[in-house]
């Protein structure tokens, strides 16, 4: 990656972190508190790498029998990815149910194909791929294996 593209990725990450931290994530949390939940949004709980306190962030997850896949759009740079690197034990909520598991980065996974697998159908797959490309700066797939699977 060239220095110019690295700088662009860092600028994009900072801009999107600001939007997520101060607008998108609080909006999702507010909707959740009043009982409005989406099947497309799960809640990932990690333990803060510095604080040691539980940290929750909305994510899109693809569930299967043994666990779930999530994508860190900004790779290991995102806050929740840094938390996973420090402590891979996580909880993931889908609807009202919480799952306990262990998260691991999967750097060899094709994140674009993974993002497309989150959606079913030609149009949703294309939308997922477009969204992935629009938001990513250094994406990496994360596999969460459930302890209670």
Account of the 3D structure:
Strand 3 and strand 4 form a beta hairpin. The longest helix is centred in the first third of the chain and has 31 residues, at 3-33. Strands 2-1-5-6-7-4-3 form a 7-stranded antiparallel β-sheet, with helices on both faces. The chain is 40% helix and 30% strand. The mean pLDDT is 82. The chain contains 4 helices and 7 strands; from the N terminus they run H-E-E-E-E-H-E-E-H-H-E. The protein has a single domain, classed as Pnp Oxidase, Chain A (Roll), CATH 2.30.110. Helix 3 (111-117) packs across helix 4 (122-135). The protein has helices spanning 3-33, 79-86, 111-117, 122-135; strands spanning 42-47, 54-59, 61-63, 67-72, 89-94, 97-106, 140-146. It has 149 residues and is of the alpha+beta class.
């Amino acid at each position: 990656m060239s220095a110019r593209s690295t700088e662009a990725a860092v600028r994009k990450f900072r801009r999107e972190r600001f939007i997520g931290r101060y607008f998108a994530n609080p909006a999702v949390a507010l909707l959740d508190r009043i009982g409005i939940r989406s099947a497309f949004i799960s809640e990932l709980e990690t333990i803060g790498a510095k604080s040691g306190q539980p940290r929750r962030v909305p994510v899109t997850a693809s569930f299967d029998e043994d666990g779930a896949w999530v994508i860190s759009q900004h790779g290991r740079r995102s806050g929740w990815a840094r938390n996973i690197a420090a402590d891979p034990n996580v909880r993931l909520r889908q609807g009202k149910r919480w799952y306990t598991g262990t998260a691991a980065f999967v750097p060899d996974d094709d994140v674009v194909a993974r993002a497309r697998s989150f959606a079913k159908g030609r149009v949703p797959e294309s939308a997922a791929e477009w969204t992935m490309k629009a938001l990513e700066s250094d994406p990496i797939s994360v596999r969460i294996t459930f302890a209670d699977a």
